[in-house]
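Why does residue order matter? Because the sequence determines the fold. Keep that principle in mind as you read this record.
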Amino acid sequence: MQNVFNYEKVGQKGRIEQFVLLSTSPRRRDLLAFLNPALSSVEVDERALEEHFMEVFKEDDFLTRAAKVCCEITKAKSDMELEADTLYISADTMVISDGKIFNKPVDLQEARQMLYSYFGKSHDVVTAVCLRMQGYLEVFYTVARIEFAPFYPELEQVVEDYLTIKQPLDKAGAYGFQELDPRLIKSVTGDIHTIIGLPVAEVSERIFKTDQ
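Structure:
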């Protein structure tokens, strides 16, 4: 299974003196702590962008279509005035299951439906990343596949505890991977940090490697 896909690249990185993470996600902040980034964010209408680009990419298979949409949303999050010698990092994560995009649930009932729908099968998680600075743009996405265990009665309380104790409403697909009870997870293919919200190894390599 291929896990890393290039989407767009323009220009070359210049000297980087500062990093800015364009995200309000505490998970991404923790994952990029080694960069000590400044924090900012750009408000975008993600659902409007999703609707528009799902139509633009309608000829692609559903996973590729959703991944490209994720890339466009990520790019939009970095559409701002750029300071010199500053690398801006934005990201977006989508959960794709049963030929649908599972966004953040609107309420606990929808979160419950999402979680129960995962049992006994696999679904995909896409994280798109945009690295941007003056004269440089690079967008790529990574894909991971997560297989849930088949449902059995003891797991009902596991799900209900998660819904009660954690905060599923602010997470795509109604879960944060690092918070899930290990009894729910059968296997993972790909970088688990794609599922958490940022493929850190790939991001670091693209920032610090020397362009050929």
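The radius of gyration is 17 Å.
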